[in-house]
Design brief:
Length: 168
């Protein structure tokens, strides 16, 4: 890496990007998931989501093509909505992209699902996920008290909820 007139070596890590879904409902809730997470050895409340591209090898190959990662992320958001929440996305808007930092590349693409139809949840083998319609005030509290433990998602959800409150 070069900074000014100096060259130096730094560690670098890359992971295939992910998507997360913010799904407001017509009755004033937001759809969260309660999911068993092996790394926590416990259940966690989360925004539904998953990987944009399944493996790092496939992701690195995709990068070489110069393809549109935002479009791939949108496709992944639609797929994950069906699998984890059981909804068919009719309209989704990219709300934010969270980037890790200088030496860690692991982007998370956050989509707000503005319109959807009810479908059927289609979990992958080993997934233990329950959809939890959550009042906005409760979702805010969960972001702040750690019940939503993925801190990047907690922050983006808080930003979304605050923006929504300001617009009302």
């Amino acid at each position: 890496m070069r900074a000014g007139d100096k060259n130096f070596t730094m560690e670098f890590a890359r992971r295939s990007p992910g998507v997360r879904l913010i799904v407001p409902t017509t009755d004033g809730n937001v759809l969260l998931t309660k999911e068993y997470r092996p790394e926590l050895k416990a259940y966690d409340f989360r925004l539904a989501g998953g990987k944009v591209i399944d493996t790092l090898i496939e992701y690195n190959s995709f990068l070489k093509t110069g393809g549109d990662i935002k479009e791939k992320a949108r496709e992944a958001a639609e797929r994950e909505a069906q699998e984890e929440i059981g909804i068919v996305v009719k309209e989704a808007e990219l709300f934010a992209v969270s980037r890790c930092g200088l030496t860690v590349e692991w982007d998370l693409f956050y989509f707000v699902v503005n319109a959807y139809e009810q479908g059927t949840q289609n979990l992958e083998e080993g997934e233990d996920i329950t959809v939890v319609p959550t009042p906005i005030a409760e979702a805010q509290a969960m972001c702040l008290d750690g019940r939503i433990s993925e801190e990047r998602s907690a922050l983006i959800l808080l930003r979304y909820l605050n923006k929504k409150k300001d617009a009302e």
